[in-house]
Write a structure and sequence with these properties.
- With 332 residues, this protein is α+β, with helices and mostly antiparallel strands.
- The chain is 41% helix and 20% strand.
Length: 332
């Protein structure tokens, strides 16, 4: 992975996944080893979406892309249990509610037999607050699944952000043999758009009711116009990299939404009592282990941002940056 060990937290605390122990990590990049019934020779690299963003800092420093990373990985005996391609739609081409309506009216042609929808709502003061809708094509256990969902609602709920209704995400989720095949195709011509377009063309088409009511065969139905426009432009997408440092959005938004009103209250009461309650809170505050780890990871991320880890990465050093600076050229 070309991440110096001094930037990784070895033997870190935290949960692994089924049959695996978490042994190292940097933010949302996790290294796991098999335990118990999952014994095999090797390790597992697990990166969430935000973990991918974190890792792009290292790709950028090494003047690499995801294709370079995959090519390097494939020199070893490896398996890819899952890879997702996510298409962010901010135009937006598609309306998830409309796609669900088309599904309910049978106006979808797909090789994926299992189709489901999900809607998340909250009841607040006798008013139903919508938390976004999702449409799933393919089963959870299958090697391939397509998910259409309202990303703006998810982000607003997760981080307390202002709702962005013009943000959908369409995910192509590849598992096991399909994921391995995806990597092979990516390395052939390094064209994500071609793969996304060919997969979508092959797996699904949303339809429009024909004017000719006697037409029964779905394959002859006209294509739903927004889907046609979306598919026409999918061919223009590119694999993007958006490196980011430690993501503190969730904590910051929680502070802004849930904590700052109470802090403001005590700041104002402090003026009446001639007391600095906020400073007292800070003096008595103690970070737990998780918060300490977030603080340390953030400091490491700043090193990357400032370029102080660049030489360490390029020369493959795994000791500390301080020790590296003291090492002369002959021992590198």
């Amino acid at each position: 992975m070309r991440i110096p060990l001094n930037l990784m937290e070895l033997h870190c605390e935290g949960k692994g996944i089924a049959g695996h122990e978490l042994i190292a990590g940097f933010d949302n990049i996790k290294i796991l080893k098999p335990t118990g019934n999952a014994q095999y020779e090797g390790f597992q690299i697990l990166m969430s979406g935000s973990g991918c963003r974190n890792y792009e800092n290292f790709l950028k420093i090494n003047n690499e892309t995801w294709f370079d990373f995959l090519e390097r990985v494939c020199r070893y005996h490896v398996n890819f249990p899952r890879i997702d391609i996510a298409i962010d739609d901010r135009k937006t081409y598609l309306n998830i509610s409309e796609l669900i309506r088309l599904k309910n009216e049978g106006l979808v042609s797909s090789q994926l037999q299992e189709i489901a929808e999900n809607r998340s709502d909250k009841l607040r003061e006798e008013e139903l607050k919508e938390n976004g809708k999702s449409l799933y094509l393919g089963s959870k256990k299958s090697n391939f699944r397509i998910v259409f969902y309202e990303k703006g609602y998810e982000q607003a709920e997760k981080f307390g952000k202002e709702l962005d209704t013009n943000w959908n995400r369409y995910e192509l989720r590849f598992r096991q043999k399909k994921a391995v095949r995806l990597v092979e195709e990516l390395l052939k011509d390094r064209d994500v758009a071609r793969i996304a377009l060919s997969v979508l063309n092959d797996k699904v088409r949303f339809l429009e009711k024909p004017e000719n009511s006697s037409m029964k065969r779905k394959r002859l139905y006209p294509t739903y116009p927004p889907w046609e426009e979306f598919m026409r432009n999918v061919g223009k997408i590119k694999l993007t990299m958006k490196p980011q440092e430690k993501n503190l959005d969730k904590i910051w938004n929680w502070l802004m939404v849930c904590v700052s009103p109470s802090l403001k209250l005590f700041a104002e009461i402090g003026k009446l009592d001639n007391q600095d309650y906020i400073s007292r809170l800070l003096q008595n505050g103690r970070m737990n282990d998780t918060q300490k780890r977030i603080y340390e990871d953030y400091g490491k991320s700043l090193l990357l941002e400032k370029g102080e880890a660049t030489d360490t990465l390029k020369h493959g050093r795994t000791d500390s940056i301080i020790n590296y600076r003291k090492t002369d050229e002959s021992t590198r």
